[in-house]
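@channel sequence for tomorrow's demo:
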Amino acid sequence: MLTEWEAIQTRISCRSYQDRLIEPEVLGEIKSCIDALNAESGLHFQLLTAGEKGQSIIKMSPAMFSGPIYTFAALVGGEDPVSSEKVGYYGQKLVLYATRLGLGTCWVAGTYDKNSITVDVPEGEKVWDVIPMGYATDKVPLKQKMIRAAIRKSDRKPEQFLESDMGYADTPEWIRKGIEAILKGPSAVNQQPVNIVYKDGKAYAKIWKDGRGLQYNDLGIAKRQFEVGAAEAGMTGHFLPGDEAEFIPE
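structure tokens (generated this afternoon):
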């Protein structure tokens, strides 16, 4: 099984799926992961899956996706920024776990038919995102390659993620590994609205621009990515919640 760092290196936004159901034992592992994440976070993630092949369980934009979607996770949580950040953080934990199991995934906030799904949404909460899961096709269709190229074209350089009084190359390896992980992570409409501030030996995660209403989702995703990258360089720790929150070494 892949490590989380290896999952970060191999994960891509999968938009082309095989006509293949996920095996029951794998679904069981994903469900157990979701149960644990919900218990820890207080969120209401849900796993929905088709009982048999033949029809997708969710209608995705045909301009963005190909192949049937037989399984997806609905990321449900409160409508406030704190919940939005949690959705990003714990949603990315789920994505990396699914990647470790050999599944393709994609964060989707808007390019699906909301009327095509039935999700249990408690009062005062919403479906922030859905994450289709399945097996990626061996050959990526040209349309998907073009979409991926267009999205990644605007990627920022690693040094652009850093706010510090020292140069990028002079920062500790754990800072650079953490930023590398953020760069490889998903971001709503590829906005990449999160920077790392490094001053006086301390690191902070900071929203530096509006992310089309999903910047706190992206903050949570970026925090989890950074934590995995930093750990790969020998610095285990976690971020405190909120914008401009400090990374606490363990």
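heads up for whoever presents: The domain at 154-249 is CATH 3.40.109.30 (NADH Oxidase).
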